[in-house]
Amino acid sequence: MRTLAFLALSMCGVCEGMFADGILVDNQIPGGNIEFVRAEGETIHLRNEMRDSEGWWFWWAFRVRGAAGCTRVFRFEKNRGWDENVSNRGACVSLDRGRTWTYTEREPFSPQQFTYTFPKDADEVWFAMSIPYGLREWEAFVGRHRGDPALHLGTLCASRHGRNVPLVRIGSPNAPYRVFLSSRHHCAETTATYVLEGVLEGALAQDALGDWFRRNVEIVSVPMMDLDGVVEGDQGKHRAPHDYNRDYTEFIWPETRAVRNLLMDGRTVDAFIDFHCPHYNDPRIHLMMCRAGRTEANQDAFAALVEKCAEGLVYRRKNNYPWGDMWNCDRLYATGISSTIWATRLPGVRFSGCYEIPFSDTRTDRTGPAGVPITPENCRAFGRSVAQSLREFLPNEAYGPVLPPPSAVGAELFSQKEVPADGGEWPVPAELARMESGFAVEFTLQAEGKPAPWTGVLQARFREKDKVHLPFSFGSDDRGRLYFRMDTHLSVNEQNVAQATTVFDGQPHRVRITFEPSAACANDTCVVCQIDGTEAFRVERRRGRVGFSSVFANTIAVGRSRSPFRGRVSDIRITKIR
């Protein structure tokens, strides 16, 4: 066996391994990600790049040139304690520079390595952890449907690296139903976008299904939320300080802020579906269900429809993860909530869920023989099944909004007619302090005179000694608009106050604040604020942190009010809720 000398270079994201017999390994392909470590005989040692991900993840993609006729073993070295990077059918391999892909499953492989015999005429071969999906694939989809009057292409926002993030709409904004679809909150989860494509193609099809969608549904879709990560080959998962799908508390990324603003335009979003991929070797399609305390019947009913309609890939709803089951609970969202949890707060939403699409094959159990291999074609077929399920779900009035307003029951716990204009604090009844049940605070806000800038803070503390804290304030400008300013992720032990600023027109407005202890974690709390019967925002305490999000239906404007308080709070009433 020959001893091979090598030269490894790593500059500006370029990774190369040059061997004495002319073999070259690098990451210079769309979504490329690899570090060359060393060569030992016929084994090439590699390591996938974590980049700005704080934990281990398993995406990699690279090309090999000059290996025609050779057999090589590609071995992954440990990175942050893990070396399992090869999925259930081996590596994905392309002989035509990424246009088509197959699996290396006919040759030996394990989670740590794979073997490949290069065809004698293969001067350049691409390898990837899963079948890639990037801008080229998206442009191919657009090209297949270009000229369709139902398809409207636009831009969600500019990414953090200056790219235009694609936004697609299908149908009319005046349609009876509205559906939001997204994928690639974790940019390495490639097969999810092929399924999303299938949903869009079902809505655009020249058949009965497509005709129904064009007449009845507006689809709003962001196929690649983390576009920069898709193009650059990042992991996306665990991106510091938190990844895109934990950013629906703070909204630090431009794409998540844009989705928030896009969907809080006063119109109902009937269904919100975010497509993901699970662990590298999990072959089960499953639905990540949202929090306990929310209506789970709609999620299970929609899953039953998908199971009944499923084509292309294998799906059984027995594999779904209900809220509170195993790791699908509050601790999974310690750094921030996901898009689908956030979407349960949108006015009138009837279904919100995350579908996980495996990387290489699907079957009904984790163990056993290989199942149905993942291909772009059968992913799209499964996506059409999701579209058919929406066709059956949306017109069914039995599936009402996910979050009906909580009703007050039981005895009155506290009441007070007047509160000082600069805010007030009051003792909390013992039952309330123990947080054994949820409770509602109702009061009336009265602005003094005509619209004029004013601010005020009504305070009570979150279980801090014997006080309750309502972390928001009210203010106005001189235009008579309703708007909010949000300060997020505050420590409950500090004196900071999350700000919600609104305008009052000299008339009283009824405000209802509902405190909901978490069914999954007894020390956590959710606070919901309604103004004149419309949910305005909610505040959640999780693991000693507070997250704030607004879902008010009117236009949001960012700003501050600097004038003193002019108004009063009265008629406070606290009641127990179920």
The tally of strands reads: 31
Shape annotation: globular
Tell me the structural class. alpha+beta
Radius of gyration, rounded? 27 Å
Fraction of residues in helix? 10-25%
Mean pLDDT: 77
Uncertain segments are 1-12, 404-410, 421-429, 432-437, 449-506, 518-524, 541-567
Strand content: 25-35%
Helix tally equals: 9
Distance between the termini: 74 Å
**Strands in their spatial order, largest beta sheet:** 22-31-23-27-28-29-30-26
Largest sheet: 8 strands, antiparallel
Concise description?
With 578 residues, the chain is an alpha+beta fold. The protein is built from 9 helices and 31 strands. The longest helix is centred in the middle third of the chain and has 18 residues, at 376-393.
Description:
- It is a single chain.
- The strands form six sheets. An eight-stranded antiparallel beta sheet has the order 22-31-23-27-28-29-30-26, with no helix packed on it.
- Helix 2 (191-204) packs across helix 3, helix 2 crosses helix 8 and helix 6 (297-309) packs across helix 8.
- It contains nine helices and 31 strands.
- A hairpin with a 2-residue loop joins strand 4 and strand 5.
- The longest helix is centred in the middle third of the chain and has 18 residues, at 376-393.
- It is globular, with a radius of gyration of 27 Å.
- The chain is an alpha+beta fold and 578 residues long.
